[in-house]
């Protein structure tokens, strides 16, 4: 009872401080809010919206169930999740956070996976996209395209290790799955596809409308969290709370002989990984290895902003959030350890050889130009795509409400 009261008092005090800070510092809060909004409507919405809509349609048409049957022999023994987890993993990797959580929650709502399986699946299917790791972090922040391979290898290998560890989650509470003796897996996959399509007997127009509504509702929620944490991060810095937490972190960094200049960027990264990664790359008089290891940890942890987005998505189901948080902590440390292990053999020797380095640099320059072109394109047309998407959402939702009335 006492702990509950203390928790209530701390939450009320924290929210009150944030509200007062926004009143006292309106200009800084407004600029931070605009910065978060620009990130959402220029980049996040245009890049995630097509993935979300297509994913909804693939689930509705039974394609995901089809792939699930085909991938069952791979996903079940390795991660103890159904084959549909392979589709979720691939889409999460391609589109980035929090697509894995969105698809996992959708599969759980469709009852294609159990609660325990969903908690295992969401733990390792949320990751940064290759475009973000190579284009934004390696090239954009560190100006070193070869580091993209280090970040990608440590990040995705760390996710696989987390998936292998999470296979033991809920073992005691899970019912044993009977092994299938079916030999013609393609035939069974086609049957599953057809059965799912027949079971979901919605017209194509209805299915498309529901996909648009569901996708945009999720993206609006994501946008709200991006803006909220952008303002929160700025206020924490202005109130010197980030500096205070940084002094506490300094003692830990000095113990492991890491630069104390990394403390404030790490604290910022705990809240928002993009900002934290950028700040880490700008720290001076710090060994590059330390910067890369800390960045790998932040990318694996994901930041409270991404975790809040995932928590909001999972709240629509019975999937518990606690296993996801534990998995993110594991992912952060595992990615950092992998980075340390591969640094000398992979980065210093393999990537630094003349032929490899020349090839990687050429690839990096192409990647840099492509990323810059895409960023400029999103900067020009991204807001138009966002506005068009919201208008379509309003029209579809209004039509749906009219039919219900």
TrEMBL record:
Pfam families: Gate
Membrane-spanning residues: 48-71, 121-142, 207-229, 235-253, 292-313, 325-343, 380-398
InterPro entries in the cross-refs: Gate_dom, Spore_IM_YlbJ
Keyword Transmembrane helix: yes
Coiled coil (UniProt feature): none
Keyword entries, A-Z: Membrane, Transmembrane, Transmembrane helix
Keyword Ribonucleoprotein: no
Domain Nucleoside transporter/FeoB GTPase Gate: 43-140, 219-315
UniProt-recorded name of the protein: Sporulation integral membrane protein YlbJ
Upper classification of the organism: Bacteria, Bacillati, Bacillota, Bacilli, Bacillales
